[in-house]
Amino acid sequence: MMILRLALAVAISAYATAQPASTSSLVTYIFGDSLTEVGNNNYLQYSLARADFPYYGVDFSGGKATGRFTNGRTIGDIISTKLGIPSPPPYLSLSQNDDAFLSGINYASGGAGILNETGIYFIQRLTFNDQINCFKKSKEVIRAKIGDGAANKHVNDAMYFIGLGSNDYVNNFLQPFMADGQQYTHDEFVELLTSTLNNQLTVLFQPTSHFHFLLFLYQKYQNRARDSSEQIGWSSALSFFFQHYYYYILSQYIYTFCLLSQ
């Protein structure tokens, strides 16, 4: 927990240093999975990955479930508080005419991963590709509201938070009934993840001349392996490849970033 807090503090401080004194106009766009979701899956009728049950949210403002997969705040909520801005609402809660499009949006969805097949047994969720497409639609709404020039500046000056990675293992590669775990070796799978993420970040930020975002890549592995003799090897190997390849990607894209290992 101390490492997490330190990483957040360093990242937020680095970002704040690069910004004007006032953060009143700061806009954040959040992408990710259940660790950052604030209720998108509540709007997906057939999703099996939902947090709208009693005891979720008991320590959150109001004491009721909001779609957050926690009893309290998400990492995105904490970052927003530290930056002195409201936590963005879930994308699927907004109408096309909603002015909230100009104040930041949360696209995160429980069960989501870098790969489209990750979490497929949850029936409905917004994969990272889905979230990127939702962001594209958001930009069209913003352009319609304030014009092309102002919209481009708006998204260029925004802060982006991306938290992904755990579900691609927990709800894909390490599940014996999922094809990826049978089709790829662990290093091949990491190469698949990193090349896919590389392409996704290119699509997400290609039109943007400059940007700031925090990328949290969660290295979480289930407490089991295909046999006990592989347990230590899997964890250490996956950790090595995650760090090696993701640092390569980060060096190309990221202005401000944190790499968290849990």
Compose a concise summary of this entry.
It is built from eight helices and four strands.
List keywords for this structure.
alpha/beta; Rossmann fold; four-stranded parallel beta sheet; 8 helices; globular; disordered N terminus; disordered C terminus
Please characterize this protein's 3D structure:
There is one protein chain. Helix content is 41%, strand content 7%. It is an alpha/beta fold and 262 residues long. The protein has a single domain (26-253), classed as Rossmann fold, CATH 3.40.50. It has a four-stranded parallel beta sheet with strand order 2-1-3-4, covered by helices on one side. Helix 3 (128-146) packs across helix 4 and helix 7 runs parallel beside helix 8 (231-253). The radius of gyration is 18 Å and the shape is globular. The termini are close together. The model is unreliable at 1-14, 218-235 and 254-262 (pLDDT under 50). This is GDSL lipase/esterase. InterPro entries: GDSL (IPR001087), GDSL_esterase/lipase (IPR051238). Keywords: Signal. Residues 1-18 form the signal peptide.
